[in-house]
C-alpha cells in the first residue's frame, strides 16, 4: 500500500464513527482555557448575512449545532465529510437542533461543488488526514468566490508533545506520524497555503492540561491506535498503563500541551468587507 492509501485507510478506520473523536475531545475539556475551542473557532469565522459556507471534514457537525443561536438567519450551509458514519451523525445532530443544512459525503480532494460559489470554506483539524493537500487546496480555491476565504485549523508540533514522548518509549508514535498523516501542522501549513492564497492570517489557541490521573488520558491514547493498524497495541497497552501509574505516583501529575493554529486564507489580497 502506498503512503496516500495508508493515510486514507487510517482516516477511514479512525472516523467510521465519532467514538474516537469524542474520546480525544473529552481530554480538552480539562484544559486551562476557559473558552472552548469550538467557540473560539466559530468567533473567527466572522459569519455575515447571506453567506454560502462549505465545511470539509465536518465530523459530527458540532460547530454549527453548538453555535446555532449565533448563526445569521440567511446563511446557507453545506456540510461534508468523507465518512458516511460522520455524515449520518451530522444529519441527526442538525435535525435535532433544527438547523437547515445540505449534508453530503464528499472527499476534500474532489469537491462536487460549482466554481466560485462559496464565501467561506472551513476545514477544521482535517487537512492532515488528506493525502494530497495541494489538490484539496486547488479545489477549495476553485469553489471560493473571488473575495472568499478559507479557514483551516490544525495542531502545532508541540501539541500533545508529552503524550508523543510517552508513546515513543513504546515505539508507537513514530509510525503514526510518518505513515498515517500528511504533514500539516501549524508550522507546515504556511508552506501549503501561501503558494495558493495571496493573503494568509494566523491566530493561536492554547489550552494546557495538568492531569492528576489517567482516567481520560488512557481512552485518548487508545483512540489513536485502531486494532486493524496496530494489532500489537493490546500487548503494549499494559506497559503504558504501568508507566502512567509510575508517573502519577512519582510526580503526582502529567502535563499535556494543547496548541492549535487557525489560518484565514483569502482568495484575493484586496479583501472587500461587507
Ligand atoms: C479530527 S476530525 C475533525 C472533525 C471536525 N472538523 C472537528 O473539528 O471536530 C477529522 C474529520 O475529517 C474527515 N476526513 C478525513 N479525511 C477526509 C477527506 N479526505 N475528505 C473529507 N473529510 C475527511 C474525517 O472523517 C473526520 O470527520
UniProtKB/TrEMBL annotation:
InterPro entries: Methyltransf_11, Methyltransf_Superfamily, SAM-dependent_MTases_sf. Residues 54-151 form the Methyltransferase type domain. It is an enzyme of class 2 (transferase). CDD domains: AdoMet_MTases. The keyword Methyltransferase applies. Keywords: Methyltransferase, Transferase. One of its GO terms (molecular function) is S-adenosylmethionine-dependent methyltransferase activity. Its EC number is 2.1.1.-. This is Class I SAM-dependent methyltransferase. It comes from Promethearchaeum syntrophicum.
Amino acid at each position: 500500500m502506498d503512503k496516500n492509501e495508508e493515510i486514507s485507510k487510517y482516516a477511514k478506520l479512525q472516523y467510521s464513527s465519532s467514538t474516537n473523536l469524542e474520546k480525544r475531545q473529552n481530554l480538552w475539556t480539562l484544559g486551562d482555557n476557559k473558552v472552548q475551542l469550538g467557540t473560539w473557532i466559530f468567533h473567527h469565522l466572522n459569519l455575515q448575512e447571506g453567506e454560502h459556507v462549505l465545511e470539509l471534514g465536518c465530523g459530527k457537525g458540532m460547530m454549527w449545532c453548538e453555535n446555532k443561536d449565533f448563526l445569521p438567519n440567511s446563511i446557507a450551509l453545506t456540510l461534508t465529510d468523507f465518512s458516511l458514519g460522520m455524515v449520518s451523525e451530522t444529519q441527526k445532530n442538525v435535525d435535532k437542533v433544527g438547523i437547515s443544512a445540505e449534508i453530503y459525503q464528499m472527499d476534500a480532494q474532489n469537491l462536487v461543488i460549482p466554481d466560485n460559489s462559496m464565501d467561506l470554506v472551513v476545514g477544521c483539524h482535517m487537512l492532515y488526514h488528506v493525502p494530497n493537500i495541494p489538490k484539496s487546496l486547488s479545489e477549495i480555491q476553485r469553489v471560493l468566490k473571488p473575495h472568499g476565504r478559507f479557514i483551516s485549523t490544525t495542531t502545532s508540533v508541540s501539541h500533545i508533545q508529552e503524550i508523543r514522548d510517552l508513546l515513543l518509549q513504546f515505539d508507537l508514535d513514530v509510525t503514526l506520524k510518518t505513515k498515517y498523516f500528511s504533514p500539516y501542522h501549524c508550522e507546515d501549513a504556511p508552506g501549503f497555503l501561501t503558494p495558493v492564497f495571496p493573503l494568509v492570517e494566523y491566530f493561536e489557541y492554547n489550552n494546557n492540561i495538568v492531569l492528576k490521573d489517567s482516567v481520560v488520558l488512557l481512552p485518548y491514547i487508545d483512540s489513536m491506535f485502531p486494532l486493524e493498524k496496530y494489532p500489537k497495541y493490546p500487548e503494549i497497552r499494559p506497559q503504558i498503563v504501568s508507566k502512567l501509574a509510575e508517573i502519577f505516583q512519582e510526580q503526582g501529575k502529567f502535563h499535556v500541551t494543547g496548541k492549535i493554529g487557525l489560518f484565514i486564507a483569502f482568495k484575493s489580497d484586496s479583501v472587500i468587507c461587507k
